[in-house]
């Protein structure tokens, strides 16, 4: 009987070997150490995408919109003589262009 028990123990060691297959993912992760993990890379991409915009972005965005508005106001108050005398009505295009660039920057603001 003791021999059977030893064979049963031997059978249980084969069970331990199948339990060792559960350790293979850890081994496979170690084998891919130089390669980036796809899930971790996706997480880093999401974090980069969801980062807050820098403070200078907000100041530049608002500054462009205010500068465009002031450009248009100066153009109308000076009876089309200022801010650039030779541009005539193209001063309006420049002013609205500044405002539109500022508004376009708001789409990237987080």
TrEMBL record:
Region (Disordered): 1-43
Membrane spanning residue stretches: 56-78, 90-109
Membrane topology term: Multi-pass membrane protein
InterPro entries in alphabetical order: CrgA
GO cellular component: plasma membrane
UniProt KW Cell division keyword: yes
Keywords, ordered alphabetically: Cell cycle, Cell division, Cell membrane, Membrane, Transmembrane, Transmembrane helix
One GO term (biological process): cell division
Pfam families noted in UniProt: CrgA
Low complexity bias locations: 10-24
Subcellular location: Cell membrane
Family: Belongs to the CrgA family.
Task of the protein: Involved in cell division.
HAMAP family according to UniProt: CrgA (MF_00631)
Protein name per Swiss-Prot or TrEMBL: Cell division protein CrgA
Source species: Kineococcus radiotolerans
Taxonomic placement: Bacteria, Bacillati, Actinomycetota, Actinomycetes, Kineosporiales
Gene behind the chain: crgA
């Amino acid at each position: 009987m003791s021999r059977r028990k030893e064979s049963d123990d031997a059978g249980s060691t084969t069970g331990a070997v199948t339990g060792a297959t559960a350790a293979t993912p850890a081994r496979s992760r170690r084998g891919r150490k130089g390669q980036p993990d796809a899930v971790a890379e996706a997480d880093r991409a999401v974090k980069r995408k969801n980062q807050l915009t820098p403070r200078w972005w907000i100041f530049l965005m608002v500054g462009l919109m205010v500068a465009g508005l002031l450009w248009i106001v100066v153009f109308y108050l000076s009876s089309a003589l200022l801010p650039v005398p030779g541009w005539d009505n193209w001063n309006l295009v420049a002013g609205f262009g500044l405002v539109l660039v500022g508004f376009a920057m708001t789409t990237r603001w987080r």
